[in-house]
Amino acid sequence: MRIAVLVYGRLNKCIEHYENIMEHIGKEHTVDVYMSSDNSSEALRKGFLDLYKPIAYTNDPVTYDYDLGAYRGKRPETNIHNMTCHYINKHRVFALLEAYVEKANVHYDAVLSLRLDCVFHNRFDFNGIAENTIYIPTGNDFWGINDQLAYGSLATMKKYNSIDAKTLLDRNLCIPHPECLCLANIKFHGLQVQRVNLQYHRDV
């Protein structure tokens, strides 16, 4: 299979977790990596590029002119800036993937959205991926649904990675909280959710 891996956000732990990530995705697959980070250090950026050899990447600063924290229901643990960067990086990394697919006319059997502070204990199963279905590990839902990683078809992952937080909040579909917004986005696009038994923990 050919798998696109979309890395978003901080590059911390990228070197330490490289073997674990690749082993559990499956080294028998062709894996193409794309990355969107913002202001990662030169050392982290170089380490990532040397190991993961991404097809395309950006490390440009994130800018925005809106405040998602101005909406009702903000929980005290929610870091609005980090959450906003999370969505912008997901948008940007999918745009990199989409541009390459159009340019190179490649087909991916699955697209995986992934953060690099995850340590996996069993392998991903990319067999039998259905259209309009998002595959999300069980657990870590926190008033919504796990937003740490997900996979699906290219068309499904475009919807998943294209969270328009302002629209969801303007329509009162959720509160400004990452897992709540993730679930609202899934429902907004009418995606089916398949929970998978992928065991992992975050190394923070």
At a glance:
The chain has helices at residues 18-25, 42-52, 80-104, 154-161, 165-170, 178-188, and strands at residues 2-8, 30-36, 56-58, 110-114, 118-120, 133-137, 150-152, 192-196, 200-202. By secondary structure, it is an alpha/beta fold.
Please render the helix and strand layout as text.
Layout (H helix, E strand, L loop, with lengths): L1 E7 L9 H8 L4 E7 L5 H11 L3 E3 L21 H25 L5 E5 L3 E3 L12 E5 L12 E3 L1 H8 L3 H6 L7 H11 L3 E5 L3 E3 L2
Parallel strand pairs: 1-2, 1-4, 2-3, 6-8
Antiparallel strand pairs: 4-7, 5-9
What labels describe this entry?
204 residues, Spore Coat Polysaccharide Biosynthesis Protein SpsA, Chain A, 5-stranded mixed β-sheet, 6 helices
Structural class: alpha/beta
| Strand residue content | 15-25%
Mean pLDDT: 96
Quaternary form: single chain
Query: What is the total domain count?
Result: 1
Report how far apart the termini are: 31 Å
Q: Please work out how many helical segments DSSP would assign.
A: 6
Estimated helix fraction: 25-40%
